[in-house]
Amino acid sequence: MMKTFSNSRISNGKREIFCFILGGAVGAVWMLTGGVLYLRSNLLVRYDLPLSMYEVDSAFAQNIPGETGWSATPEVCAIPMASDGRKVSNWKLCHRMYARMLLDSARGSTVGALLPCTVSITEGEDGHAVVSRLNTSLIGMILGGDASSVFREKIAPEQDALIRMLGTEKHIKKDAEEVQVE
User: Fold this and answer.
1) 110-141 as b/e: b if 16+ CB within 10 A
2) CA 50 – CA 138 distance, rounded (Å)
3) Which of 86, 90, 136, 155 is buried most, with the most CB atoms less than 10 Å from its CB?
């Protein structure tokens, strides 16, 4: 009887080790697919705009400064164009009030690495502009706390609206006159 008790104890121990290893493997697979693959496909937001890169770049320079509290500063990139000749333009977007809110948050000492937000305008293969930015809503979810609400509720929707607005012809200024499209 004593042997049976110790044998069942050993098999229970093996079962626990097996379940532990199986749980770790399932967790690793879930983390890989749910974490890495999700982040890889959602970390950047892409906007395919119907205008040329030059038009969108000009719209950034002319329309964003002063609109809704955002500032836009061109950023000189070490690679002025892709290897296939497509042009690239980078802009730093900053909203003073939101930046202050982020720097005053509990994560303020480290969240400064994400400021100001970078927006990239690339010439697409079809000649139209492709605008991309960091998914600030996702960054907010990852960071949590006060920074989360600022990124998710303020920065992400306003940047989205600004970029979509600039993608329309009615916001392109030519020769100091705004062209209105009906």
Assistant:
1) ebeebbbbebbbbbeeeebbbbbbbbbbbbbe
2) 26
3) 155
CATH number for domain 44-174, candidates 2.30.180.10, 2.40.50.140, 1.20.1090.10, 3.30.310.70: 3.30.310.70
Scanning the structure block, which residue is given the tokens 């492709």?
Answer: 130
Q: What is the pLDDT of residues 53-86, one digit of tens each?
A: 888 888 888 777 765 788 888 887 776 677 788 8
Residues 104-109: contacts with CB under 8 Å, at least 24 apart: 104/146, 105/145, 105/146, 105/147, 105/150, 106/145, 106/146, 106/147, 107/143, 107/145, 107/146, 107/147
